[in-house]
Amino acid sequence: MGSGLSPELPRPIRVRRLAADGRLRVIYVGRLMRASPEALVVEAFWERPPLDLGYVRLEPQDRFVEYFFPGRWFVIYEIHHHRDDRLKGWYCDIVYPPRVSEEEIELRDLALDVFVTPAGEVRVLDEEEFEALRLSERDPSAYAAARSALRDLLRMVERRDPPFGILPWAAA
């Protein structure tokens, strides 16, 4: 990626999310707020009907601050309530490293997810879906990288690395 992205920010950028098999899941446009070789930060808004996941409810116009890390196997979505911008938590996806161009960020989801509440509770989600991909047999290096990314992400939460350092429990 390097310095290939336009320095003019904020600006629109398309985000293309693919399933592990490459099928298109969703395309949306966000605003690229920051860009460096280490991370891209995009602001986007939930534009779908309400979705209750059991541990968080996504509602129209909830604000997402999305952290994409070129070369890393995860992305982090910081979710804020649409009415008062209160933090709802972080939804984190284990993905193939994002592909970034001037116009677009493309992600291939590996089904393994993490949710972190504002109180610091951590849930690892969709282990069965991840194992059903059979990456350990079909692509052992991708399987190992995804498992390593999960460990890295959990360490970031434990150490309260950004963006997790803004939590109320960070002062504890």
Automatic annotation (TrEMBL):
Q: Which PANTHER family match?
A: PTHR39159, UPF0374 PROTEIN YGAC (PTHR39159:SF1)
Q: Which UniProt keywords apply?
A: Hydrolase
InterPro entries in alphabetical order: DUF402 (IPR007295), FomD-like_sf (IPR035930), Ntdp-like (IPR050212)
**Keyword Hydrolase carried by entry:** yes
Q: Look up keyword Membrane and say if it applies.
A: no
The entry lists its GO molecular-function terms as: hydrolase activity
Which top-level group of life is the source organism from?
Bacteria
Q: What is this protein called?
A: DUF402 domain-containing protein
One Pfam family per UniProt:
DUF402
List each copy of the DUF402 domain by range. 40-160
